[in-house]
Specification:
Layout lengths: L14 H8 L4 E11 L2 E10 L3 E5 L9 E6 L3 E11 L2 E6 L3 H8 L16
Antiparallel strand pairs: 1-2, 1-4, 2-3, 3-6, 4-5, 5-6
């Protein structure tokens, strides 16, 4: 059985969101984080990170479109929007431009845009 919740997704990701996810290289991490929504603050775990967003594990349900602040000791605070949640896995899309995220995250975890892929004939 796969341990990655994304591999078991049953809800399709809209094409626009999938394109964003594919446009950045993802790095697997296991970092404790705080996720703030308004005055609420939740403990969470970041399991992968890219210039476009993050996948986290969170016990509390949040709504698609919720605006949050992801606070990481390793990096700092990043504004994001919830783009999907399935079970305890949650997808965030960062609000800042990828260049800003690269400058912020790059000190701790170098990330670059995904390399172009060759199309098969």
């Amino acid at each position: 059985m796969a341990s990655d919740p994304l591999e078991r997704r049953t809800t399709p990701i809209p094409e626009e969101e999938a394109a964003i996810l594919r446009s950045s290289v993802r790095k697997r991490v296991l970092w404790a984080a705080k996720l703030a929504r308004g005055s609420e603050c939740f403990n969470s775990v970041v399991v992968d990170l890219s210039l476009g967003g993050a996948r986290i594990h969170l016990a509390q349900p949040l709504g698609k479109g919720d605006l949050v602040m992801l606070e990481l000791d390793e990096i700092g605070a990043l504004q994001a929007e919830v783009v999907w949640q399935e079970g305890h896995s949650l997808g965030l899309q960062f609000m800042e431009e990828p260049q800003t995220i690269a400058a912020t995250i790059g000190r701790r975890l170098p990330l670059t845009a995904a390399p172009p892929t060759a199309k098969s004939a």
